[in-house]
Amino acid sequence: MRQQVTSLEAHGFDSPTTESAFSSSLSSSSSSASDRRLKTLVRHFVDSSPVPVMDSHSQNPNDTVSPSPTSSAFHADSVFAHLVRAPEDPILGVTVAYNKDPSPIKLNLGVGAYRTEEGKPLVLNVVRQAEQQLVNDRSRVKEYLPIVGLAEYNKLSAKLILGADSPAIQENRVTTVQCLSGTGSLRVGGEFLARHYHQLTIYIPLPTWGNHPKIFTLAGLSVKTYRYYDPATRGLDFQGLLEDLGSAPSGAIVLLHACAHNPTGVDPTIQQWEQIRQLMRSKALLPFFDSAYQGFASGSLDADAQPVRMFVADGGECLVAQSYAKNMGLYGERVGALSIVCKSADVASRVESQLKLVIRPMYSSPPIHGASIVATILKDRNLYTEWTIELKAMADRIISMRQQLFDALHARGTPGDWSHIIKQIGMFTFTGLNSEQVAFMTREYHIYMTSDGRISMAGLSSRTVPHLADAIHAAVTSFA
């Protein structure tokens, strides 16, 4: 800035802190482009100049107060000196460790982000097309969105998960607000329930995504678990699930993974979903769906939304958190939505008014770019069709990785039944490996995953499957 000020002084301006001096000098000049640029610079310099402050020892109003570099405050202990170093997030910490490993054969199977066969991040072609449309639209501005977000995006998101012909949508019984991806949608929903719902207990599956208990606890809910995964079969503990939900107090909230359960990859069948629905409705349990993988699990948007639509079709109420991180590859855009299906349009309207009061002091309004990408794709028939094709290609590649890993383990004669790898669905596989085996694979084979044995199938490729199969075989045979 000092260089810019010197440049102005060379044009006849003595001080960058007096707007009137600038104005009078400029008014006598010709209105050239150079003068207009100088006027703009003047405004910026004036606005950003330090405000003169007089202390008890100052005789000059232009003197500014600044701390002395020898002040004792500079030598005192930090007010945060008592803090201990927090541990790395158990999931994101895997990537931190991976990045520090210099090995050329290292493999990161920890974080759930899609990778190409070459191991590179993928930006969908349809996303690039949508972004180009947005860039070319000169009428677009960067004004704040309303508290609830982009209206068109909210409408299209509700249709995507609930179905375009959903009676709840047609009867205006659904309120949808744009949130900060799936995490933000869950947090807004959790805080809304903590403020306005009569039951403050939420039951989450055991195991579940590691962030779920933290989100709901900080939102003000009491977290309990229900049985979900059976380590013996590496499948669903359906009987345990029914018993635990049957014992839950009437009206309790129940978190349900809409599809591609994280971390196990184990989903109920449609028949089992129907039994779950009947049990929950009979006890007035409130469903809260987390839909992070619609279309990404089976390759079909409608099939992956079927459990949610079953609960909406019976006329009951529920909450649905959506994310476009996985199915559109918009991880860093943080695009999500929270829909609350109510009994009437009037109730939905009142619910929305209270959701605004949750969002306003939290982040005020959501970002516009990612939501605009999603809306552009969902409303354009050609772009939507292309998206479904790209989405199915991603899902099919993950399914192929499952088959290749199963075949590789079978070919090596690895002890145990590995059929769960091809029975599970979605981005993750719960391998059944224990923490000792995982540590061995990291140490000896430079393969990184969470300590519970969860691996991201999206991080695999045909080139790296043999390396992983060798590591699993060695781990299982070395540590039975």
UniProtKB/TrEMBL annotation:
GO terms for molecular function: L-aspartate:2-oxoglutarate aminotransferase activity; pyridoxal phosphate binding. InterPro entries: Aminotransferase_I/II_large, Asp_trans, NHTrfase_class1_PyrdxlP-BS, PyrdxlP-dep_Trfase, PyrdxlP-dep_Trfase_major, PyrdxlP-dep_Trfase_small. CDD domains: AAT_like (cd00609). GO terms for biological process: amino acid metabolic process. Residues 105-472 form the Aminotransferase class I/classII large domain. Belongs to the class-I pyridoxal-phosphate-dependent aminotransferase family. Important for the metabolism of amino acids and Krebs-cycle related organic acids. In plants, it is involved in nitrogen metabolism and in aspects of carbon and energy metabolism. In eukaryotes there are cytoplasmic, mitochondrial and chloroplastic isozymes. This is Aspartate aminotransferase.
